[in-house]
Amino acid sequence: MRKVQFKVWVCIAFFSNVVFSAPDIQTPEGRGLERARLESERTAIHSKFETLDRECQTRFVVTSCRDDIKLQRTRDLDALTRQELVLNEMDRKVAAAKQQQKLDDKTSANAMAEKEKTRQDALAATAKRAADRAQKKLDKDSQPLADKSVDRAAEKAANKAPLPSEQEKAAKRAAYEEKQHELAKRIKRRDEGLQDLAEKQKAREKEDAAKAEKMSR
Question: What predicted TM-score, i.e. pTM, was given to this entire model?
């Protein structure tokens, strides 16, 4: 009986003392290798138990022998289960970290987009105020010129001898066309100035956007 128990305990020790070179479970690949190793050990434990169980059935004290190897099998399988739980917990933490990173990236992107929108709105408002000031100045400068044109035309007409009706109409039409021509020139210069201002503002906005994109990287 002692010989049987000795052989059983020698076989049991086989389960507990086998040393494996554990992979790095901090990486997904390492955890995959570790799971494969645990599954291989589980298969080996079951296979070894079946062999020992058959051997126990050839012994005189069958029940005690089988109880001993069953107990050890349970302990070894429990040890594998605990190791698998560690791997599962690591997988859970990695997945949670990735999800949190996605949320952080999305929040950061939204914040940057909102900041850029605010900046663009401010630039547009600044450009509009500059355009309004330029328009007011142009209108202010154009009014005296128009008045002078009318005064010159009136003075010229007054100094001349009375003209026939058709000549008076032609003179008035000429004065009006002269005034309109002068205003058209002023408006053209104003439009050119506004266009130049808009192009400069657009170039400045493009440069600021490029800087912002570069900083975000």
Answer: 0.40
